[in-house]
Write a sequence for this structure.
């Protein structure tokens, strides 16, 4: 862009990502590169709660600051996707149904919440695990991202989804809301992980375990059977311990890259009002991942 004669007159915008432990996030670079490709200056800031000594309780102050500083939008990630909901002026139908927001558009001082995690996971799943058996599915995690992914899983055709969470009440609440939307019995809160894993066709992982700052497995390795598929939403690192163990056992696996790319595609559309080039954003994401390995 610096070699373009008209650079000084290019439109510009500022957006950001609020979350905990996000220094390795590739979302900012995806947004900025797509903005440059479409001919405008796009600055995308990481607002990492950890080094700032902040928590989700500080969201009201962060939102006020974003408005005052002229931000056009914010992406929201762990642990703020549900905490931010009551702080917003308006919610899209999907965000309201999910009770989780990962994209906030700031227009005329108003904060409008959207959710692109659901569509992002669904698109990544269709591309990465075509033909996956969707009879019984186990999901670990019923938080903000988990709610979106659970909706996506049922939308993709899962006959019954069993959700486990460290907070059993949260799993029950999610199951109830999913049954209200998709039909009685389509989702249940699990209480016996070993039995559920023995009967499942696939596993979806939606907890922070496996992230760079929280390494490890989210369930005992012996519960993973090579006959099932395993889908991950963690994408930094892209190769989590869950995926390594599952692949070694013979499972078909899906990393979190697809969801990362396609939720960013949706967020870019909301922030800018422009149609992003999804394949260009995906190629950029994959090139960044490859460079991190070098």
């Amino acid at each position: 862009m610096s070699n373009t004669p008209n650079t000084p007159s290019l439109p510009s915008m500022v957006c950001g990502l609020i979350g905990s432990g996000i220094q390795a996030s590739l979302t900012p670079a995806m947004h900025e590169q797509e903005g440059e490709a479409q001919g405008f200056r796009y600055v995308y800031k990481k607002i990492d709660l950890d080094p700032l000594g902040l928590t989700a309780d500080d969201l009201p102050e962060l939102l006020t600051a974003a408005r005052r500083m002229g931000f056009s939008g914010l992406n929201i990630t762990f642990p703020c996707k549900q905490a931010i909901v009551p702080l917003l002026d308006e919610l899209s139908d999907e965000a309201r149904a999910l009770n989780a927001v990962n994209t906030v558009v700031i227009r005329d001082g108003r904060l409008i919440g959207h959710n692109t995690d659901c569509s992002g996971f669904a698109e990544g799943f269709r591309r990465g695990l075509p033909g996956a058996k969707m009879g019984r599915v186990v999901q670990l995690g019923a938080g903000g991202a988990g709610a979106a992914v659970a909706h996506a899983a049922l939308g993709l055709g899962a006959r019954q989804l069993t959700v486990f969470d460290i907070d059993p009440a949260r799993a029950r609440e999610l199951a109830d809301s999913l049954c209200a939307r998709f039909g009685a019995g389509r989702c249940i809160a699990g209480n016996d992980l070993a039995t559920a894993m023995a009967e499942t066709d696939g596993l979806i992982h939606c907890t922070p375990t496996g992230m760079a700052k929280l390494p490890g497995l989210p369930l005992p390795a012996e519960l993973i059977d090579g006959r099932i598929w395993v889908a991950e939403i963690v994408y930094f690192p892209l190769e989590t311990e869950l995926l390594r163990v599952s692949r070694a056992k013979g499972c078909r696996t899906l990393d979190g890259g697809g969801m990362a790319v396609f939720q960013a595609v949706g967020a870019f559309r909301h922030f800018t009002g422009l149609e992003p080039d999804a394949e260009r954003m995906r190629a950029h994401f994959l090139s960044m991942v490859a460079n991190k390995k070098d």
Notes: The chain is about 40% helix and 20% strand. Residues 257-272 form the longest helix (16 residues). The chain has two domains: 7-115+260-293, 118-255.
